[in-house]
Amino acid sequence: MAALRGVLLDIDGTLLDSNDAHAQSWVETFEEFGHTVRFEDVRRLIGMGGDRLLPKLTGIEEESEIGQRISKHRRSRFLRSHLPSLRPFPKVRELLKELCNRNLVLVIATSAGPQELEPLLQQAQIADLIDEKTSSGDAEESKPAPDIVEAAVKRSGFRPAELVMIGDTPYDMTAAKRAGVRCIAVRSGGWDDAALADAVAIYADVADLLEHLEESPLAGT
Q1: CB neighbours (10 Å) of residue 161?
Q2: pTM for the full model?
């Protein structure tokens, strides 16, 4: 197996406790635009990009005029009303600093939009630790398509076999697998082990991963 050179990182549900807030911002926005959608139905799709979530729940394509208005309003609502109260999961910064100390390149691979990327990193208190970043703006299709992970691989400068991704949803697992990257799963995003079965290892959260770092895929060569 190739030596580990870098780590690809999802943000929402993995580093930042934000999945419920994303779902709630969609529910509130749909309501304002005349669509009643249950929180539970939105929540199970968090981890996909809005380009997939919006048509699945309303039949509205994101590229349409109304789709663009809904997406813009949802983003504004999330950043204004939800993001300021969010917190990173325990030991997130400690884990990333340890990975930096091991000379691993850290690359963000998120389905969040480019306008949300920097605010999310700031709220997670890790912006200064990240080497490269990719978001939905770097991909034709969002997760579970492999585009974002493939963009992150390219940005890292390494081969897929030299990288490991950390994510929290089955969409992360599928995207990483299709891009040829091993994926570590954390349950902090609300998914169970059956949904995360494509992961090479599963941990309760990043604190659990940090505690067991020497036995994890992140310690491998």
Answers
A1: 14
A2: 0.94
**218, 4 Cβ separation under 8 angstroms:** yes
Structure tokens that stand for 19 in this block? 């999945």
Domain ranges of the chain: 6-17+87-219, 19-84
Q: What is the mean pLDDT of each run of 10 residues along the chain (221 residues)?
A: 92 98 98 97 93 95 96 96 97 98 97 93 97 92 93 97 98 97 98 97 98 92 51
- Provide the b/e sequence for 62-101 (b: ≥16 CB within 10 Å): beeeebeebbebbbebbbeebbeebebbebbbebbeebbe
Give SS3 for 194: coil
Tell whether domain 19-84 is in CATH 1.10.150.
yes
The 10 Å Cβ neighbour count of residue 191 is 23
Topology of domain 6-17+87-219 in CATH is Rossmann fold (3.40.50)
